Amino acid sequence: MKHLISMSDLTQEEIIALLDVATDLKEKRAKGKVTDLLKNKSIGMIFEKSSTRTRVSFEVAMNDLGGHALYLNPRDMQLGRGETIGDTAKVLSRYLYCIVARVYSHDTVTELALHSDVPVINALSDREHPCQILADLMTIREYKNRLKGLKFAWVGDGNNVCNSAILGCTLVGMEVAVACPPGYEPYPEIVKHAKRLGGKVTVTNSPAEAAKNADILYTDVWVSMGDEDERDKRLTDLAPYQINTKLVNQAKHDVIVMHCLPAHRGEEISAEVMDGPHSVVFDQAENRLHSQKALLLKLMAC
Ligand code: CP
Ligand code: NVA
User: Fold this and answer.
1) Which pLDDT value is given to residue 29?
2) Distance from chain centroid for Cα 256
3) Which residue ranges does the record assign to the Aspartate/ornithine carbamoyltransferase Asp/Orn-binding domain (predicted)?
4) How far is the CA of 261 from the centre of ligand 1 (A)?
5) Which of 39, 51, 151, 214 could, after both became Cys, cross-link 66 (CB 3.0–4.6 A)?
């Protein structure tokens, strides 16, 4: 039994195998072919925070595969009245084949995994968002026909999505350059871990330096869920880190621009770039569905 808590829970071979299955499932869905490998199986999805893509894509994934997904709001569960995470995990393991959890604190998802007898998937914590990066690697491969050797540039807040991107891109042999203001760096232990894996990872304060020769330019919101109190400061500090046409012009001519969404046009990305020819953001969103299907099949051993 295996969980997906961090992108580093996967090996390069496992990531590539997941992307291959996801691509196959995407083609099958386009042809209207159904596969009900998860028939009669239910998963539970605990969401402490809002979600559009993650919730809907997991729910549709389970439905397409013949299974069922339950949306669980912690405020409606006994968790909200003090039942422990450990007891909750043990009880849910008796009903469900997998637990998906979107949480504020990364410790909550690790605690769930510690006590669960079924696989636990991190659907975003303050530290990582591995499901997003699986879909993103699938999208990059669709556009570039390869992963190894590409330059991935992250511009903006070195947040949870950035942490998973550093690990995921390193695992598949990409170079990673992060540009962020002082104080907004990705987790140092994640950068260290990626370097230990043999990754070429640089962290700079210069968006132009990161964007130079980049095959991929990636950004995310400046105010993540949980950071709302710091909104004004963040908008000021991160203002020079917008992905706009000027920055796109510093990258390779065929650069793809990525964003995990939701986006705020005029903040981390200009409207012109978000809705322009380099943007692949809606392919990323679609690929959440296909890559999570592959992940569910792998973790539920089908
Ligand atoms: N990208 C992403 O995880 O979107 P949601 O917050 O809508 O799930
Ligand atoms: N970094 C963002 C990602 C949303 C999908 C957040 O944590 O809110």
Assistant:
1) 96
2) 17
3) 148-297
4) 6
5) 39
Has residue 31 got a pLDDT over 70?
A: yes
CA separation for the pair 173, 210 (Å, rounded): 17
- Tokens (6 digits) for 69: 């997904």
Q: Are 129 and 137 in contact (CB under 8 A)?
A: no
Across 63-124, the runs of DSSP E, i.e. the strands, are: 68-72, 98-102, 120-122
Domains 7-128+288-299 and 132-284 share a fold: yes
Question: What pLDDT shows up at residue 209?
Answer: 98
Torsion of CA 80, 82, 86, 90, to 10 degrees: -70
Most distant CA pair in the chain, distance: 54
- Would you call 88 exposed, middle or buried from its count of C-beta atoms within 10 A (0-12, 13-18, 19+)? buried
Q: Please tell me the CATH superfamily of domain 132-284, with its number.
A: Aspartate/ornithine carbamoyltransferase (3.40.50.1370)
Per-residue pLDDT at 1 exceeds 70: no
* pTM (2 d.p.): 0.98
- Taking the domains of the chain in order of start, what are their residue ranges? 7-128+288-299, 132-284
234 carries a ligand binding annotation: no
**Among all ligands shown, which has an atom nearest to the Cα of 161?**
2
Ligand nearest 219 Cα, by number?
Answer: 2
Work out whether strand 175-179 and strand 68-72 pair parallel, antiparallel, or are unpaired: unpaired
Cβ neighbours, 10 Å, residue 11:
10
CA end-to-end span of the chain: 12
**What are the pLDDT digits (tens) for 214-256?**
999 999 999 999 999 999 999 999 999 999 999 999 999 999 9
Fold of 7-128+288-299: Rossmann fold (3.40.50)
